[in-house]
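Q: I'm writing a short methods note and want an example of a predicted protein-small molecule complex. Could you take the sequence and the SMILES for adenosine-5'-triphosphate and return the bound structure as tokens? Please keep the output block clean; save any remarks for afterwards.
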Amino acid sequence: MRKPKHDSKAPGCSGACCLRVEDMGVDIGGADILQHVNFHLHCGRIVALIGPNGAGKSSLFKAILGQIPHTGTIDFQRAGGKRTRPLIGYVPQSPAFDRGDPVSVFDFFSAAVSDWPVFLPTPKKLRARVADCLERVHGGDLIDKRMGALSGGELQRVLMALALEPLPHILILDEPLSGVDIDGERQLLDMLDEICSQYDLSILLSTHDFATLEEYADQVILLKNTVLRVGAPAEVLACDEFKEVFHLDLKRGVG
Ligand SMILES: Nc1ncnc2c1ncn2[C@@H]1O[C@H](COP(=O)(O)OP(=O)(O)OP(=O)(O)O)[C@@H](O)[C@H]1O
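A: Understood, no commentary inside the block.
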């Protein structure tokens, strides 16, 4: 397991760079999608959000991003105790690109980070900036590939590079491992570990893949409409709530 840079501070929480979600709720069309959600995130840590389909994982991300209204409190405190709006990098669930899409990674990236018209010759500085951003995810060689020709793992890395520019306080990834093969998954997990340690940011990701949780996650949040359990991966995977929600006893197989 990764050694967290910060000790776990919740509850009471006096840790640096902390996102606090307190008694948070989301109502969509009269349905309580999320209720009484409580947890804290700290920088330098990878937190995995797990829960069955429809548990509210994407809704929780959208509430943190301010894309949907919520009740309760979501606030962010920087080192030194100053409250501020956090800068959040976000990669949504399975964005699709047409296989024949002629847009290159460079075009896509530069359109997102600059207002330089694509029909004009590319300034060297802009190309260098995009290359640097892609290097953060070991994707420098992808710069001239077509977006539509990227593998699942490569696409995740490009979108992650974009989410890391400018460097956020929090990186949110909605099911980054879905549609990624075993080698791609290994590369992504190693990279997340590196990014988390190198930039000391907080990574919150959702996943249905429990096999690798203990390797990379510092903490796991089990969600189903509310937070059922927060803890170290081994603790959450062994808890009764996990077995009940997934009808799964990982020590004994499917229950
Ligand atoms: N815009 C919407 N209108 C109506 N219901 C919605 C809307 N968005 C989400 N929901 C409902 O909220 C619940 C939670 O959905 P959400 O996508 O947050 O779950 P999830 O845990 O991310 O699921 P999955 O693992 O399948 O991606 C579901 O029952 C879903 O149908």
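A: Remarks, as requested: Residues 210 and 224 are 16 Å apart (CA to CA). The chain has a mean pLDDT of 87.
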